[in-house]
């Protein structure tokens, strides 16, 4: 399988979530299931069915995180330089609206557009890869064609 690129911060966040699920959430749901069992008839026990459903979700998420972390290739952006690549924090200006935006290009499992973390597989990130400061970039987004100018590239 292919390695999954990830920043050190993204890797640490996923490890932290996995630790929380294994050491806090899993034991809590096991206790909740045991308590619900004590209430008698399981066929009509909503607490039991709810707890089992939550347990299924937690176990699925644990398996997913273990899989992602086993394939993770942690790339430290501080050790990179040059044109835009994975890990770069890029400041762009929209050539139509003069609106400035800053995004860091990260792996898909740590992407969060509200926090300025742009998925490397997104149309904007793919268009930016290999560009340098001052370059103009045309991007076809779900909202239509956009033109950006690269103002600044920072690694680290």
UniProtKB/TrEMBL annotation:
Keyword terms: DNA-binding, Elongation factor, Protein biosynthesis, Transcription, Transcription regulation
Presence of the UniProt keyword Protein biosynthesis in the record: yes
InterPro entries, per database record: GreA/GreB_C_sf, TF_GreA/GreB_CS, Tscrpt_elong_fac_GreA, Tscrpt_elong_fac_GreA/B, Tscrpt_elong_fac_GreA/B_C, Tscrpt_elong_fac_GreA/B_fam, Tscrpt_elong_fac_GreA/B_N, Tscrpt_elong_fac_GreA/B_N_sf
Domain (Transcription elongation factor GreA/GreB N-terminal): residue spans on this chain: 4-74
Cited SUPFAM superfamilies: FKBP-like, GreA transcript cleavage protein, N-terminal domain
Name of the protein this chain belongs to: Transcription elongation factor GreA
Pfam families per UniProt: GreA_GreB, GreA_GreB_N
Domain of life: Bacteria
Keyword field contains rRNA processing: no
Family (UniProt): Belongs to the GreA/GreB family.
Stated role: Necessary for efficient RNA polymerase transcription elongation past template-encoded arresting sites. The arresting sites in DNA have the property of trapping a certain fraction of elongating RNA polymerases that pass through, resulting in locked ternary complexes. Cleavage of the nascent transcript by cleavage factors such as GreA or GreB allows the resumption of elongation from the new 3'terminus. GreA releases sequences of 2 to 3 nucleotides.
Domain Transcription elongation factor GreA/GreB C-terminal: from-to ranges: 83-153
Single annotated GO MF: translation elongation factor activity
HAMAP family: GreA_GreB (MF_00105)
Gene3D superfamilies the UniProt entry points to: Transcription elongation factor, GreA/GreB, C-terminal domain (3.10.50.30), Transcription elongation factor, GreA/GreB, N-terminal domain (1.10.287.180)
